[in-house]
Design goal:
Blueprint: H1 22-40, E1 46-55, H2 63-67, E2 86-87, E3 99-108, H3 110-123, E4 151-154, E5 171-181, E6 188-191, E7 200-206, E8 213-218, E9 220-221, H4 230-243, E10 258-269, E11 274-280, E12 283-289, H5 299-319
Parallel strand pairs: 1-6, 4-12
Antiparallel strand pairs: 1-3, 2-3, 5-8, 5-9, 5-10, 6-7, 7-8, 11-12
Helix pairs in contact: 1-5
Length: 320
């Protein structure tokens, strides 16, 4: 099972990537394009949202504390990247919070965004096909011309762990569970951790264009379970209304209007995102996978690197 992208949040929690990492640069290079879409292309399903990030010092070293380590800093690398970044005064913090920041981020209604992306590909002459591959080189025979492909771009996510010719055993899932509701909080929120377990998280993300509000979540490494856990769902909803009473106008969990429960598996990789080229079975392959829980927010930056790798591989092929 792969990450159920139509039910994914997605929000640009820019800053999840560690400072000075390659992923940080991918995030920085992605932000301008997502901001442009939010400004110029409402049909893409991307919009700006006011965002508040809460930090609890006791979450340092926990699974979610490590996940959000950069995001929850009061002096993060992205403070000059996103609009309206500020550190909130202590008197504005809810009980139990040690610090907080606010800024403008973006949130994506993936049910609109993914078809929009597909339409952009189709408009530019891309042919979209379905197929079953047992080995990465099987893709060579799927070119629309009937001829062998010159190059393969591998973006198979978790499947890279078992796909023949790749079989990257450093790829593993981080299970995420969310509740999609109709309620509108008016702000996006994230907390560094919870008291319900170190791999559980609290975030509230209102998607664009009537896409509902995503309540999360979890970051359960190595867990493949695809069905929602009702007990976890109740904890998610309880934490959400506790940190944001405006979600139900102070009426508690019972006033949440639930659309669906969903589970997805984030494609983590021990050494982070793999963007690299190699020859497999006589064909150049460019890999782009292992984007964990920040695929959207690193997408355009990753794509820029992948394009360079494709150009390099094709240039080398031409010399053979």
């Amino acid at each position: 099972m792969g990450w159920s992208q139509l039910f994914a949040v997605s929000t640009l929690l820019i800053g999840v990537a560690a400072k000075d990492s390659k992923a940080m640069q991918y995030e920085k290079d992605t932000w301008p394009e997502l901001a442009r879409l939010a400004t110029e292309s409402p049909e893409a399903g991307v919009h700006f949202r006011d965002t508040v990030i809460y930090n609890r010092e006791k979450d340092i070293g926990s699974v979610t504390g490590d996940w959000f380590a950069e995001l929850t800093k009061t002096d993060p690398w992205f403070k000059n990247t996103v609009p309206d970044f500020k550190v909130l005064p202590r008197e504005a913090l809810p009980a139990g919070m040690d610090s907080a920041t606010s800024f403008q981020s973006v949130c994506i209604n993936t049910a609109l965004y993914l078809p929009w992306l597909a339409s952009q590909c189709l408009k530019n002459g891309v042919l979209i096909k379905r197929g079953i591959l047992m080995h990465i080189t099987d893709a060579v025979k799927l070119h629309h011309s009937g001829n062998k492909a010159d190059l393969i771009l591998n973006c198979t996510g978790l499947s890279s762990a078992n796909l023949g010719g790749v079989e990257d055993k450093t790829v593993f899932p981080a299970r995420g569970q969310i509740v999609l509701v109709r309620n509108e909080p008016g702000v996006m929120l994230d907390v560094s951790g919870t008291d319900d377990g170190e791999d559980e998280a609290t975030y509230i993300m209102q998607r664009a264009a009537g896409g509902g509000t995503v309540l999360g979540g979890s970051f359960q490494k190595g867990v493949w379970e695809s069905q929602p856990d009702p007990n976890l769902a109740m904890r998610i909803m309880k934490r959400s209304v506790d940190i944001c009473p405006a979600l139900t106008n102070g009426k508690g969990v019972e006033a949440l209007s639930v659309v669906r429960h969903a589970v997805g598996l984030r494609p983590l990789r021990t050494d982070g995102i793999r963007l690299a080229k190699e020859r497999i079975g006589g064909i150049w392959v460019v890999h782009s996978y292992g984007h964990a829980g920040y695929g959207y927010q690193t997408s355009y930056g990753s794509a820029q690197v992948a394009v360079k790798l494709v150009d390099e591989a094709l240039a080398l092929r031409a010399r053979l």
